[in-house]
Amino acid sequence: MGLKKELNDGVAAIFRDQWTTRKGRNVPEPEDLKLSNDAVEFDRATILYADLAGSTALVDSKNWWFSAEIYKTFLLCAAKIVRSEGGAITSYDGDRIMGIWVGESQTCPAVRAALKINYAVHKIINPALASQYPSQNYKIKQVVGIDTSSIRAARTGVRGGNDLVWVGRAANYAAKLTDLDLEPRTWITADAYNKLRNSEKLASGKSMWKQYSWTQKDNIKIYGSTYWWPIND
Length: 233
Description:
With 233 residues, this protein is an alpha+beta fold. Helix content is 36%, strand content 32%.
C-alpha cells in the first residue's frame, strides 16, 4: 500500500468511526486505549504545565552541555515534585513537563507542586548552579500554569510510535498560561483558585495570589503568585 492511500484511509477512518468512551478513575497508560476512536473520560482533572523560561536564548548563547544540564536539573526537580504530590507525569516536551491529577484530591496538590517547583528553582537549582559555574552569571526562571476541567484521554500516533493526547480545556489553558511573561511564576485559572483551601491561598494570613485579567483569553479572571512552598524533607 502506498503512503498516500494509507493517509487517505487513516484520515477517513478517524472521521468516520464512532467513538467508544468509558469513565476513568486512574491516569491510563497508552496501551490501555486502542489506536482507534477510543477515549477515557474524566469529569474533572487538574493539569499542570511547568515550562523553563528563556530556553531559546539559553541554547543560542550557551554551550550545549550547559544547556543540557539546565534542562536536566529543572525537569528532574519538576518531575520528582509532581510525583511527590501524587500527580502523574504524562509527557516531557523539550523544556517542559505536563502533570495530571485525578480523583478526589487534585487541585490543592497540583498547586503545592507548582509552588514547590518555584522553591526548587530559587533555593536548590540556582544556588547549585552559581556554586558550580560562578562565572556564568545565569539564573533559571520558570513558569507554571494550572487549570482544572473535564478532560478526555485518547491514544494518537501509529503502531510503534504513539502516546496519549489529553483533550479538554485544562490541558490547553495550563499550557497557554506558561506563555505569560510577568512577575508571578505560578498561574492558575479562577476555577482552580476556587478549589483551593486556605492553606493553599494564604501565607501568614496574607493572600499568596494576585488577581489578573487574562487579555489573551477575553479577559477572564486568573491568579498569579510569586510565592513558594518550602520543601522540608
